[in-house]
Amino acid sequence: MFRPFLLPLLLLLSACSTYKPDGTFDPAMDPNALSEKFLRDLRAGRDAEGSVQQLADYNPGNLAAALDTREKQLAFWVNVYNGMVQYLLTKNPELYDDRSNFFDTPRFTVAGHELSPNEMEHGIIRGGENRLGLGFIPQLFPSTFERTFRIRGGDSRIHFALNCGASDCPPVAIYAPATYNEQIDARVRSYLAQHSELKQEDGDEVLVTSPLFSWFRGDFRDHDGVDDFLVDYGVLTEENKNVKREYEEYDWTLETGIWAD
Description:
The protein has 261 residues and is mainly alpha-helical. It folds into two domains: 30-186, no CATH class; 195-247, no CATH class. The chain has helices at 6-14, 31-44, 49-57, 60-66, 70-91, 99-104, 117-125, 144-149, 180-194, 212-215, 226-232, and strands at residues 108-110, 113-115, 197-201, 204-209, 244-247. It has a three-stranded mixed beta sheet with strand order 3-4-5. The chain is globular. The termini are far apart. Residues 1-7 and 9-15 have low confidence and may be disordered.
């Protein structure tokens, strides 16, 4: 029989173990530069197998030591996620015939750990959120790899940067730590400009926008909620931020090679 008082102990124990550098950490082995090269090769149609192997071979403790700022973490993992999806679906587009299987199946190795798109997105980039929890329910028992690399607090803007292989996914940009915030702010504004429209319905104003806001509503607490996020990025104003929202139907048609300008 499960005893409630054990839960805090289990959570404490699950947070204790992370990967450490192996003593051979070389600051010159820049994982962010590697993630950027991975995407540049894919965009140019060049062979990316070298980058794929280097990502797989990284020592996890050394990778964690190199990703020593939030901007480095976000830029690296967003680049790798997008590169992974482009790499897998360009080589084997039939994987997308069963989307659930594609997102749930580990097929791409980073630092010796084979990851699925869902593990990378929810366990790491979203900071260890439960995939079905709308951004309100964390994962209770993350793996050591996820504990090491999860980006604490997440970043709601990543939903307008991650490309999952569908026609309505945001285009792929190549993020650098030094310019990450400026780049992703621009991507948010660009995506929302294309996927948000104020309409009149029976005399009432309605905002029709991306279902990403509905699927991950809890993630937007870093902007005090969806309404304030929409104000921050110029879609709404303080005066109409409580307008009724409706959501577009998401186009899940497979489309690789959607690159940002």
